[in-house]
Every structure is written in C-alpha cells, then in structure tokens.
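Researcher: Please predict.
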Amino acid sequence: MQRLDALELIERNASDEIRARAPSVLLDSWVQRYRFDHHILRRYHIAARSGVEALAALAEALTLREVKFAATGLSAAWHYTAFADFRLNTFLVDQHPLEPEALGLRPVERGENVWLLVPQDEGAFYGRAQQGIWCAHPVQVYLDLLSHPERAIDAARELRHQWMTWRA
C-alpha cells in the first residue's frame, strides 16, 4: 500500500478508506507485473462434448469433494459475459488433486481441455463469486485471460468493457 500511495495510484477519503485514484491505470500497471507462469499448472483432459459440459462436470466434481476452487480464464469469462464459446477450462484450486482420475481427469502433456492452477498466493481467490459456479473476481479473470489461448484476448476485452466500468 505504501508503494501504491507513493506512486499516487491510491487515495484516502475523509474516513481514511482507500480507493484507486485511477483504476484503469492501476489495472494496466498490474497487467504489466502479473506473472501467470508463477501459478503451478497441471494439464488434464476430461471427456466432454463441449467446454460448457466440461466446465459443469468439473465444477460439480470439485464441489462434491469440497475443494476450494474458482473458474478463471475463458470459462469464467463466459459466465460473466456469455461472449464466446470455449474449449479450455481453467480452475484455480487450493491444491492439486492427489487422484485426478476421481474427478474424471486424465493427465496429459498436450491436447488438454482443463488447466488446474494452484495460485502463487491465496489472493487469487479474493472476491470469488457464485456465477452459477464459483468464479474468480473479474479482475483476476482478466489478468489470467491475457495468458490464455483461443479467443482469450477478445474475451478479456469484452470482460473489461462489461465489468470494469469505473470512471478514471
């Protein structure tokens, strides 16, 4: 917070509450420093006819096993914006499953349709919300989309347009 204050990216009101001075500038700065590759990524394949079917099946399996998770990337962007179809499902999980087969997952080196990520810190789960399934906060989803394939850049643009509507 001290660094953000020194850079004049935050401000305090009369009640000493903190808010971003220029949210878009702060987000763009965060994008420059964000490192998707710091997450611990494992690649899997789940049998499904579509990305949406795979998303629902895996979310249900994780919920039944009481795994803390949040969809991110293309699957979460689809929940927030209904912008584009997708094949790859990405989930933040608090730990990688010891028996992925119990979730219907088969480890693969290529041809995956599921990425499970253990985030570098618990903050990735901050602000997760029920959007039919648990989804990461739109800002987290936006950051993650910028490191995804398929139509991720277009989905990121649409997510920012619909959900990050603050005024500069």
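Model: The chain has two domains: 2-33, 38-163.
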